[in-house]
Specification:
Layout lengths: L1 H24 L12 E7 L9 H14 L3 E6 L3 H9 L5 E3 L6 H11 L4 E7 L12 E5 L6 E3 H8 L28 E5 L4 H9 L12 E3 L2 E2 L5 E2 L1 H10 L4 E5 L8 E3 L1 E3 L11 H5 L8 E6 L9 H10 L2 H10 L7 H10 L2
Parallel strand pairs: 1-2, 1-3, 6-13, 7-8, 7-11
Antiparallel strand pairs: 3-14, 4-14, 5-11, 5-12, 9-10
Helix pairs in contact: 2-10, 3-4
């Protein structure tokens, strides 16, 4: 049994390494478009207590300075919430967020400067690394025969306005289950509604609607007496493991043998994909998270040359290799890199 498990793990690791190797080797290597000098002030994901991106920022700075030795990187990673504000007040040159930009942050930028912020995607969110924008995964109890759902169906289960479709889905029979399941109610489990993860789902799943299923059982972190944290994602799946009628949104890092993840399709009639590193990088999984970097560029004006060269490095073979070296976020695909580089011109 041990040899079997070892062989399976080795095969998965080999397949993953081969996938990344093929993906990265085709990326452009960084070649300076021009030599630049000065300081780039970077704000973004982190806090005074936890320097989430410190190691990756160090790799990026060291790599970039091999080509641009006259550049200094000044890191002020005080949190995603402060990053866009630093741009429109002139305190920062680049905002690297820990999640997709919030509509309110984009609106605040435009209210001050009268044009929207611009940005590029620089990394893919993680599969299952805490604090690194892990993928949202939906689960059912191990006894539930369902194995896949569409975002329209999930909107019908978790939402109450249904911008994706016409109706509520409140029983398992409405998802096609028969027999003893047909008239049984669906019990949804998820994040507390003011949590960043729930706010993401409002945009990505409910299409901006704030109307959730009133029966949603929402969970937040709990701090134990010994100071350890009982993560909301684990609380959600622990509750699901006790409820055969439940469906939950959480993450693979918290999965137990009593729950199973579902494959998702973005739209009716489209293919279903599981949450895997490969499917996240290739943007096949519908709820893939994206790590963006935003900058201040007035309409018709060129991008600050220092910022442009640094972003070109992040979008190069070398910059994406640094992401793999850090082993938290995932790199971008070849197609995504090409699309992001166009935005810099």
């Amino acid at each position: 049994m041990f040899r079997q498990c070892f062989a399976i793990v080795a095969m998965i690791l080999f397949s993953t390494a081969r996938f990344y190797g093929q993906n990265l080797e085709a990326l452009p290597h960084y070649q300076p478009g021009q030599m630049v000098a000065g300081t780039i002030r970077v704000w973004g994901h982190g806090s005074f207590r936890r320097d989430f991106m410190g190691r990756l920022m160090k790799y990026w700075e060291e790599g970039f300075r091999k080509y641009q030795p006259q550049i200094q990187i000044e890191n002020r990673m005080y949190g995603t919430a402060s990053a866009i504000g630093a741009l429109y007040t002139g305190a920062g040159d680049l905002a690297i967020l820990g999640e997709e930009i919030r509509p309110a942050a984009a609106a605040a930028f435009e209210r001050v400067l009268h044009y929207p912020p611009e940005g590029v995607e620089i990394a893919t969110g993680s599969l299952d690394v805490r604090n690194f924008d892990y993928a949202h995964v939906f689960f059912v109890h191990e006894d539930n025969p369902i194995s896949k759902l569409t975002l329209t169906q999930l909107d019908g289960i978790f939402g109450d306005e249904h911008r994706r479709g016409p109706r509520n889905i409140r029983t398992w029979g409405e998802l096609g289950l028969a027999g003893e399941w047909k008239d049984k109610p669906i019990h949804p489990y998820g994040w507390r509604l003011d949590d960043d993860f729930a706010l993401y789902l409002q945009e990505a799943l409910l299409m901006g609607s704030h109307k959730w299923n009133c029966d949603l059982r929402a969970f937040a972190h709990i701090t134990n007496p010994d100071g350890t944290v009982y993560d909301h994602g684990k609380r959600i799946l622990d509750a699901l493991a006790r409820d055969p009628l439940g469906i939950a949104v959480s993450n693979l890092r918290y999965m137990s043998p009593h729950v199973k993840p579902l494959a998702l399709a973005a739209r009716d009639g489209e293919p279903y994909y599981e949450a895997t590193k490969e499917n996240l990088v290739e943007r096949k999984y519908p709820l893939t998270r994206i790590i963006p970097a935003f900058f201040n560029r007035a309409p018709g004006q060129p991008l600050d040359p220092k910022v442009k060269e640094f972003l070109r490095y992040l979008l190069s073979f070398e910059g994406q290799q640094d992401i793999l070296r850090d082993a938290n976020y995932l790199p971008l695909s070849q197609n995504a890199i090409r699309e992001q580089l166009k935005k810099l011109d």
